[in-house]
Each structure stands twice: as C-alpha cells, then as structure tokens.
Amino acid sequence: MASPMMTRDAMQQLSTRILAMNTADEMRVNITSGASGNTRFAAGDITTSGDVEDTVISITSTVGGRRASSTTNLMDDASLKRAVETAERLARLSPVDPELVPELGPQQYQTINANNADVSNLDAGARAQAVEQLIAAARAPGGAMPIDPASLFVAGFLDASSAARGIATSKGLFAYHASTDVSLSCTARTPDGTGSGYAAAGGRAWTTVDPAGLGRRAAQKALASRNPVAIEPGRYTVILEPRAVADFVPLLMGSFNARSADEGRSPFSRKGGGTRLGEKIADERVTLLSDPFDPDLLGQPFDNDGLPLKRVVWIENGVLRNLAYSRFWAAKKGVEPNSGGGGGGGGGFGRNPAGLKLTGGTRSVDELIAGTSRGVLVTHFFYIRSLDPRTVQLTGLTRDGTFLIENGRITRSIKNFRWNDSPLLSLARLADIGKAEPVESGVVMPALKINDFTFSSLSDAV
Amino acid sequence: MTSRRDFLKTAAIGAVAAAGTARIARADTLLNPWSTSTGDPMANEVALAAIQAAKDAGASYSDARVGRYRRQFVAAREHQITGVSDSESFGIGVRALVNGAWGFAATRDVSREGAVRVAQQAVKVARAAKAVTHTPVVLAPTPAVTGSWRTPVQQDPIDVPIEDKVALLLAANEAALKVPGVRFANSGLALLREEKTLATTDGTLITQTFVRVGPSFTVTAIGDGDFQSYTEEMAPRGSGWEYVTSLDMVGNAPRWAAIAAEKLTAKSVDVGRYDLILDPTNLWLTIHESVGHATELDRARGYEADYAGTTFVAPPEKMLGKLKYGSRLMNIQADRTQKDSLSRCAWDDEGVAADSWLLIKDGVFHDYQTVRDQAPAIAPLNGVNHSHGCSFADSWDSVQFQRMPNVSLLPGEHDTTIDDIIADTDNGVVIKNRGSWSIDQQRYNFQFSGQAFYEVKKGKITGMLKDVAYQARTPDFWSSMDMIGGKRSYWMGGTFTDGKGQPSQSSSVSHGCVPARFRQVNIINTARNV
User: Fold this and answer.
1) What pLDDT score does B492 carry?
2) Domain containing A387: what range?
3) Between chain A and chain B, how many beta carbons pairs sit less than 8 Å apart?
C-alpha cells in the first residue's frame, strides 16, 4: 500500500496536536492507523481484491466527572477541533458517572515486536500469486484420487493488514504499538456437492502461512469427506482439531468478567454470593492464559485506557485462578486491574488484546485418533450462539470435514451435526489434550479429546 | 473470524462528530425524499475525478462512492450512562473492472489527488487479479440515473439533544428497576446518518442520505441461584426520532421487566413436538436466516463457500420455479421499497433502482437476489436481464457486493390474528422476540430460541415456559406452516448487523411478517446443570 501505518513519532506529534486543543479536565486520544489488502477467490477465480487505508482518531473527554467520546478520520485542524468540541460538549451534557476512573498518567511498557514487513509488503500481485499457488496445489493430481482434483471448487480469502495503535492522555501517558496480521483460509468442495474441506492459517508474519499446504489439506479433506453417512445424534467422544477448539473455547472468555460474577449473573458466581475463584472448574490438564509477551501470541502491551497488560492465568491446572477486573471494579474490590475498561476477559469472542493460549500436551491429532476406539473428528465449527449464559451452553454446527473414528482410525465421512454443549463443561470432561499450536494471530490452541459431547441433531449441509 | 481490519472498523464505530456539518433541515425537506439535484458538489467532483482516472488507466468500467457515516451511541445501565459517543467516518472507495477482473481501493483522503491515486491503485489491483481470473465479469445493463434521495423523517435523530436521549434511557431503566426481582437494566440507542454519493462510468451520479434508529432494552432478574433476562424486540427502523418516542420505552418498561421476573418461576419446557406459534417478533429472524440468506445468488454460485456458506437452493437450473420451499400459504417478497424499512433506498450501490419481487410464490421458489455481475448468469433461466438491485457496501472502505434486501412473509387472505391461531391450537408453544439463533452453512438445519414462551393447551395460554428452543430443517418447517395472520397482524422486525463477506461486512435489513403456526416442530430444552 502507498501509505504505511503511522510511525511512533508521527503518532506522538498528532496526539500532541490534539491534546493542545483540550479544554476539559482530562482527555484521552486513541489513534489507530493502518492499511490492509485482501483478496477473495471462488470457483478458482479471484472475485474481489482491494487495498484500504484509514486512520481513526477517538477523543475521550472528561468534565466534572462526566465522560464522552467522539471519533473522526478527518485530520485537518478544523475537523480535529470539531471532534474535540463534540466530545467535550457530549461530556458536559452527560450525567455524572459514579464509576468514572481518572485517565492514567505515564506508564512503562515493554516493546513487543509484532510488526513484519513481509505482511505489509504483501501487495495485490503477491496475494494473487499466493492464491494461484493454493488453487494449483488443491487441484494437483497425486495419490489415488477418487475424482479428478482439477474439478474441485476452491474458494477462500487472504487478508494482510498493518496497524499502529497509539494512546495519549492529558496526564502524560503515551503508548504505541505496531503489529501486522495475516490470514489465509480456503474451502474446497467436490463437484457433486457431497464433500467439503477447510484449512486455514495465520499469524503476525507471512511465514506462518503455507498457501500450497493449505490448498492440499482442504482438497484432501474435501475428497475424504465425500458421500457422508448419517449416524445417530447423541453423546460422542469427539476430537476437536485446533481450529475447532479456537472456535469454541475462547467463547468462555466473556464469562470471566469479575463484576458479573460478583453480581450473581455468571457461571463463576458462587451460589449464595461471591465468586468461584480457587474452585476446580476443569480437568487438571487445562491451563488457559493471556500473555502479550508470549512469543506465540505477540499481543498488545496495553489496553484501550493505556493500562499495561500482563500475563494472566485464567485457569491453572483446572482451577479458576483469575477473573477480569476493570479499573473501576478492581478498585472497588481492592485488587489489581488486569483488563480493559470494559472489564470483560477480552470480550465474548476471545479477542483479548493480550492473546489467548490453552496450553497443551505432546500428542499430535493423529496420535489422539490412534488412541480412540470410537469417536467423531471435527475440522471446525459454524454459527455458534449462546443458549444459556448460566452454563455457557452454546449451539453450533460441525462443518467441512466431519469423520467417524473407529478402533484408532478414521473409517468414514459422516454428516454434519448440530451440537448443544458448553466449553466450560467440556473442559471438565476432557479425555486427552493434544499439542498446542498457533491457529491465528494471538490464539494458540491444542486439539482436544472430549467425552460425551452432545450432538443434538443432524444437518444435511455439506 | 475477526481481523485487524474488523478492529479498525470497530474503532471507527466508536465515533462522532461534526456538529459543524450537521445540516439543520426544515421538516418539510426531511419528509420529501426525492430531489433532482445531486448533492454535495465537492463529493461529486471527487467521485467523477476518480472514475475518469480509472478509465484513463484502462478500466472498462468504474464506480466511485464517497461516503460520510455519522453514528451516535448512548448506553445506560441502571441509573448511570455507560457510554456516549459520536463518530464520523469519511472516505472514498473506487472499484475498477479491467479485462474482466475486479479491483478495489479506498482511502480517507477525499481530495481530487487522493481520488486519482486510489483509482489508479484500484486498476493496479484489478490487473493483478486478472492473472487468476479465468471467467471475465459481465455486468447486467442498467440505465444511467441522476438525482438524490433521503429517508423521509420528521426529526433527524442525530440532531435531537443528547439530554433528551440520556433522560429517556435513564427513565426507562428507573421504571424497570421498580419491578420486584429486577436488579439490572440496560438500554441503548444507536442512531445513524449515512450520506453516499455514487458516480459510475455508465453515467450515473446520485446522492442518498439514510437515517436509521435502533433502540434497545434488556432487563435481568435475579432469583435463588438463578438469573433470567428479557430483551424487548425493539425493531430498528429506517425512521427518525419520532419512531423512538412512539415506542414509549418508559411506559412499557415495567411490563417488560415483569416478564424477566416471571421467567424465574416459569416451568422448564418438556422436550417434544409441539405446534409452534411464532409471533412476528420471533418469526422475522427465522425468515432472515432460512429464506433471506438461502436465496442469495452469490451463495448459490459458491462465492461465500469459505465463510457464510452456500445454500441448498442450488444449482439455479434445478431450483427456479421447481423447488417446493413450503406450504402454499408461503409468499415471500423481496424489496427495497417498504416504508420505514432498513434497506429502503432509491438506488443500490451500483445505481440500480430499488426493486420489489417475489422470492417464493405459493410455496415454490421463484427468484434469487441479484447484483449486476451475477444477474447475467441466470438471465436465460428466469428471463430477468437486469439486476434486482441488491448491491451494498457497509462503508466507503468496503467493496459493494450482494446484500439482502427486505425479505418479508406476505399476509394471508383472511383477517386472522395470533389470538385466532392460539384458539385453534390444542398443544402448542407461543414464542416471542429473538433469543439465540443458529443455522448451518447451507441453511437446512436451524435452531432458534426466543425471549418469552407460553404454553398453549386446548386453545388457551396456560402459563409461561422457559429454556425453549425450536430446531427444524428449512423445507420441512415451511411445509408445516398451516395458518398465518392477515394484514392487520403484519409487523416489521430487523437488524443493523447482518454479517456476510470477507472481510466481514454488516448490513441493515428489515423483515415484515405475520404470526404463523408450524405443526409438530421439535422443541428442545436448553438448560443444563453444572
């Protein structure tokens, strides 16, 4: 892209310019500047491809215990002044916020190098080349193919972005972090419409992605999943591949909100009051953590307020160790804050800026399969929604490669299922745990073998 | 599936602004949607410069959209305001077709120079894509149009004083919290004004201003080791502030709160097959998922295979006029014309005039939703040579693609009400409002919940139920529909956040419907003991 993300100096200059316009008691400026390029393909052709650049400036003003924010992407002085005035005007008009915490002063941050030129340089030509490699590999002849692989329908998406985030406050805080993010996913479908396979990879660097390898894997799954047979819904031992685990387990994170637990509306509320901190809530092989400095995660060293983020172990050897405390709730409870101002454990969908890692064991997916007498192998999940927040009961579907395991090996392709189950209860029914691996930027998950997973109905979808 | 780019977009959604640019229009101007003038001269000039630059660089077709998106959010919990924000995002996105391949580029630099640079970039991206585009894009013809249109409103919601918005939410929460057992109340307002100028190399130059309002209200009651929430179905609309005030949030809040409290003592449902009576506040979303998304032509052609999925309504040659989708009572209309609806417009993001057509006719699949580069693929099958006008982009920095228009279940011939349906039902469950929703990637197997559930025995409501969800297979479900409401019971729901595409885009869409009965549907119990 023509205009790269803003440097630390440029961001500091811009924020200084905006802070000079402040007439409120306090001001915070959040800036996100970035560029992204994406290429989408289907039926073996590129269908859309685009390059986008933007800089978004958010101004949060506090006046007499009242706070409001305004956001703009216009950077001339008049527009910035208007945005500052809007935030201040809205703040003055808002009621006093009894939960307001002051803006932070200067903080110490450790630098995290999550910025890779191989991602920011991935232009439309390089992206097209990667897509071509992927499609060619998916359709390449080889082995005993039941159908001509050249007839496979291949669709997918490559997205590469660079973003710089900066925060400055009228109390002297300045934070800056630059990162890149790349992901490539693909779905191969057989021409008779009975087989579909999925593969995806991503991370901070382009080296985390092997386009040809992904194409081969999706094609192999598509071919192997042809003509699925229906087996009865019910409770099955399942092996969830790391991608499926990454669809499932991070959905727990919204439940780690300390305030909700204290208020009695969380699975981590203790009956009769208080929280379940210190209780065993999962199998002892389960350790779940966020750590921006973990080389596998390379998260962001601060939250939206500029609060430095640290390593937080949510579940340690099956025991609930930490809940997510916003600065307000932490002060009220006399503990250290450990998450963004909103107070969630990184939000309902696990996008914790500090990343999320479920530490694993040593076994490969193949070894987990070899150790299973009867079970279902799941490639990934689709359309997951909450059913009951009291137990984190969710519903969703399997997709793009669901197989029956019998006597330690995959014996046939089976129809997809709708499932109704809970990541929390599933972690308590763990049968085995695979080796953890990066799934996407800031997310590391192992394969999991779970007992008695509830498949509630069949889906005809391929 | 959230990307860094989503993050950027989310950051932008926190935004505000532009008190200085807010146009104070007179009420008569606000209510008259049409004008022959073409909006902001600066936006026109920049958009025209962009398409000319694309043409000069070798594009056979190009369009440019200059967009200014103004959004305001106010949120409250209990007795306090938890967020007030106002955002503005302004930029230009240019699409170029070169040798039958698409390219797109977008920038926040809305100047003549910025427009030329980004148009040349779009051409460069298209040339790179050409290497992996073997089937050239063909566009359905559309007449050139000029003019402007805006959502007719009595009061532009962005211009309403913030004090009024704050006072409304706090008063609604206050009223709810007086109900015994109710401990938490969350309310909010999402208010939008979007201005878009579109220029195309076919000679189109148009400006549209969309106004949308989305109020929300949720209460939570706490019982003995239990908690239950109730969210009122406050349909977002393409309307002004007058729609928000018409909902009487303060007056209704105690009634809504009482439902949450009542759920604490409701009977947990027994699993089994029941006759399901769906209120329009629940049915609209089932239509959205099981009919709206299933009849998108890009899904039928596999373009969404890697993300949102494909559809069982494929291939087109085996489906058009042939597939039995549901009972004869099922007539589903697509349109961008319904008053107060979210996807109402005068033209889509390719300059195609708003259309209205049937997707399902007397229970049989009739037609798809289309855009200019997809319509030619089925023209020999359905005889429709033009696009139905379903092209839409959620921002200046998103490329336009096929998005759902309003998709609505038309009323039955008789003046039937939900009470008539209840009176006619021996063993049923009534479901109101949207709860949880999930459907597979080909739109067969779905499972939906609600917010309030009532047991029906021998023609009467006998009590409240909880932990209810219904699960079915789309064609079986729609074939089981044997009773539907008449015109009087028509109601329109909708959403601001219909997700599709890579990178994921969010669109606003409404769904009108009447209450309906579905025979012998599988009901499951969603509760589980820890």
Assistant:
1) 98
2) 227-248+360-458
3) 336
Domain count, chain A: 2
Cross-chain Cβ contact A153/B90 below 8 Å: no
> Looking at beta carbons, which residues of chain A come within 8 Å of B349?
none
Residue A287 lies in a domain: no
Same domain, B221 and B275: no
Residues 396-425 of chain B with CB under 8 A from chain A are 397, 399, 401
The torsion angles phi and psi of A431, rounded to 5 degrees, stand at -100, -35
pLDDT score at A141? 80
Q: Average of pLDDT values for A146-153?
A: 87
The stretch A56-70 carries a mean pLDDT of 96
What is d(CA B226, CA A276) in angstroms, rounded to the nearest whole number? 15
**What's the pLDDT score for residue A351?**
60
Considering the domain boundaries, does residue A205 fall inside one? Answer: yes
The set of residues, in sequence order, having a beta carbon less than 8 Å from that of A285 and lying 6+ positions away, is A317, A318, A361, A430, A433
Assess whether B133 and B11 both reside in one domain.
yes
How many Å apart are CA A216 and CA A201, to the nearest integer?
Answer: 13
Q: What is the pLDDT of residue B525?
A: 95
Query: Looking at the predicted structure, is the pLDDT value of residue B226 above 90?
Result: no
Question: Is B30 within 8 Å of chain A by CB?
Answer: no
Residue B15 has pLDDT above 60, yes or no: no
Q: Are residues A108 and A193 in the same domain?
A: yes
For the record, the structure tokens of B349 come out as 């993001």
B141 and B272 belong to one structural domain: no
A70/B529 CB distance under 8 A: no
CB contact under 8 A, B312 and A30: no
Strand pairing class (B364-365; B61-77): unpaired
Range of the domain at B368: 267-525
Q: Which of A29, A49, A382 to mutate against chain B (most B CBs within 10 Å)?
A: A49
Kindly state whether residue B154 falls inside one of the protein's structural domains: yes
Residue A164 sits in the same domain as residue A234: no
Nearest CA in chain A to B301: A43
Contact assessment for residue A119 and residue A205, using Cβ atoms and an 8 Å cutoff = yes
Structure-token pair, residue B220: 């939570």
Specify the pLDDT at position A340.
54
- Asked if the C-beta of B121 comes within 8 angstroms of chain A's C-beta atoms, the answer is yes
Res B35 pLDDT > 80:
no
Over residues B93-109, mean pLDDT: 97
Q: For residue A391, which residues of chain B lie inside 8 Å, CB to CB?
A: 527-530
Residue A337 in domain: no
pLDDT in tens, A39-54: 999 998 999 999 999 9
A54 shares its domain with A95: yes
B385 occurs within a structural domain:
yes
Q: What is the pLDDT of residues B323-355, one digit of tens each?
A: 999 999 999 999 999 999 999 999 999 999 999
Residue B142 lies in a domain: yes
CA distance A130 to B502: 17
How does the average pLDDT of chain A come out, rounded? Answer: 93
Q: Which of B202, B229, B263 is the last residue of a domain?
A: B263
Total domains, chain B:
2
Give me the CATH number covering residue A151.
Answer: 3.30.2290.10
**Which tokens hold the place of A294?**
């973990």
- For B393-411, how does the pLDDT look when each residue is reduced to its tens digit (9 = 90+)? 999 999 999 999 999 999 9
Q: Is residue A341 part of a domain?
A: no
Residue A264 identity: G
- The stretches of B341-399 forming alpha helices (DSSP H) are 375-382
